[in-house]
Amino acid sequence: MRVPLPWLREHCDPPLDVRAIEERLTMTGTKVEAVHRHGVPSTERFVVGRVIAVERHPDAERLQVCKVDLGAADSAPASIVCGAPNVQAGQTVAVARPGAVLPDGRTLESVTLRGVLSEGMILAESELEIGANGRGIMVLDDLTPDAEFAPGTPLADVLPIAVEVLELEVTPNRPDCLGIYGVARELHAATGAALGEAPWSDDPGSPGPLAGVEVLVECPELCPRFTARVLEGVTVGESPLWLRARLLAAGQRPINNVVDVTNYAMLHTGQPLHAFDLDRVAGARLTVRRARAGEQVETLDGQLRALDPEMVLIEDADGPTSIAGVMGGARSEVAADTTRVLLEVATWNGPNIHRTSTALGLRSEASSRFEKGLAREQCMHAQALATRLLIELCGAKALPGTIDVGEEPPAGAPLRLREQRVRAILGIPVALERQEQILGALDFATSRTEDGLDVSVPALRREDVTREIDLIEEVARIDGLERLPATLPARRGAAGRLTHAQRVRRAAEDAMVGRGLFEIVGWSFAAPELLERLRLGPEHAMREVVVVENPLSEEQSILRPTLLGSLLDAARYNVARTRPDLAIFESGTVYRASREDAPAHEHHALGALLTGALGVRAWRGAQGEADFFAAKALLEGLLGRFNVGLSARPASFPFLHPGRSAEALADGERIGFLGELHPLVASSWDLARTAVFAVDLDRLAQAVPADVAFRPFASVPALRQDLAVTLPSGVPAAQVLEAVSAAAGPILADVSVFDVYTGEQVGEDRRSLALALSFQSPERTLTDEDAAPVRERIIAALRELGGELRG
Q1: Would you give the DSSP letter of residue 374?
Q2: Of 190, 238, 315, 793, which has the maximum CB count within 10 A?
Q3: Integer Cα distance of 631 and 639 in angstroms
Q4: How far is CA 225 from CA 201, 326, 349, 403, in A?
Q5: CB–CB of 283/323 below 8 Å?
Q6: What is the pLDDT of residues 436-462, one digit of tens each?
Q7: Are 147 and 157 in contact (CB under 8 A)?
């Protein structure tokens, strides 16, 4: 919302400059997004001039040469070439002298036009952004007939040519600040400066029945209040300059005096209005009802819009005239020949207006206010102000009576504000007198009680302030949030600690960082095409995605079923910027749709991606490339941090390379997958050979013991023996190690593969594994005789896998 500062100062004028006002409003909750300057950047070189003589330009039929007195006693009148048709000798005009900077950024210079020197510019309204008229120059005698200005008077003393404008971010819970007077009330409370009388306090209209006009509201749940007045003898024309200038500074386009009055009243009070040409309202009757399916209305922007039964319209005897709360219709709009005006001010259901404007793709100043929920009392505020202005500016006469369908809601019970509770919440005491002062400045009524105040909430804050804590917030923000001390909340024997799953999550993230990986943070949203790019068919569980009902875009219309999407996007971004060696991970939530109306399943996952060289590239070449075994080693290191063993069982995944993928198991339970990306998937993200893994941290936490017991180091040395065995190529090394461990029993302290050989000596489709066996007893040093029977059991287990000893 744009708030011109001079307009604001009419109601509340603290002795502060614009920056101090900006800071005070922002610190008390009315955030000022920016301060703009409407009009000229600098008022220097803009003065009042008087046209002494006007002559036709010798070489241009449409130009005239004017001699203009600019008030300088020691200089001759300026020569200014002007193309305006209405310039005449004797006029008092606005002049920009050479060196003046216009609103569009142009710096005016003395120029020669068709052989005649022009020493400035006689200005039109549009050239100063104080009006929309650019057809002729401004004649100050006509604009200010009761005042005389000497030539040379600074133009800023006569016209609002440079206006500072506050741009506010009004939160949805504060529709009372959508009007200039509401912002003035906030400034009054924040600074203590006096607040002027409400602009609607003087109402020239009258209550009671209104003859000749009828209003019927068929859906009171969507239109809680509808008011209307009739004004006759209206003369439609151009608004006075002050009104046009204010509307332009506030971001509105002047149209005519009737429409400008409704816009001005809306900006002033926050309540939208609409003026009907009563002679174009068929039957002099308005009906408020739900639209019928497919019903159409031509709105003021010239568009024909189709409605549905959830939308509300206003109709006369000939059919719909406007879309309620959004935009008026073209058929009954005010025109140049309008003499009778039906002034409508109503309250509409906020959520319904929001739905209507969204469905129609039609957002207006009115709809943006109504959708936030306006108070019913604001209807008469706007009626009073608009009626007075139509009488003053349009020569209108208000007919007796006001149609008022609907009632103001009854006043709610007072809220109790306890002095001790204020102190407990804020951490510092706020004197009761100060609380009364703050709430009174915000239009709350207060009365003292034994333990604090009884507070009556004003109508415009009825939906926002409903509890004692809301009142405490009002006191805190006006008294000064910056004054509150930093304190901890009161606790009674409470001790906070992380859950077991949270500790596992943090330790896992630290372990990944400790191994040199960089953490990324991706969106929880994803595009549906992610599923196709990962080659996920209809049968795959990851296809059961959670669809966002109201997505920001198609690219964010589902919740991600895997971390791979954001990891691959980050990898492609880095590789495209000459960073081919990458090791990254992400820890975040993934989502899966559930069947039979059950809540969506979500769990915290950890995923990692490796591509390019694993170490620094040097003159001796890269230190290994990212592959399946690099990902497996990283995952083993992660699980080793928790004393959990990893089992990798061959498995097929659509997005992983066949034969280079596996499912990851911890204590026999599946916790995720690992492997190299399928070449088609990698190429879809413009990547080379890439290895990934992802684990469910919630399942991993179940496998991690809550407490780790210390086991003493063995005091006797281990007995090491090596064993070489040839096996079919299809037997995984992990299966070999599992068989060896199961056959050996507790005496086997460790087993690992330290060499792999394939070639003619071991035969076709076979390979040789060299195993390092470590036997150890906590009680004594083992001998070869102790290990011999265990070795035999191991050999027997290997033969069951098709193995044969070498040598």
Answers
A1: -
A2: 190
A3: 12
A4: 20, 16, 10, 10
A5: no
A6: 999 999 999 999 999 999 999 999 999
A7: no
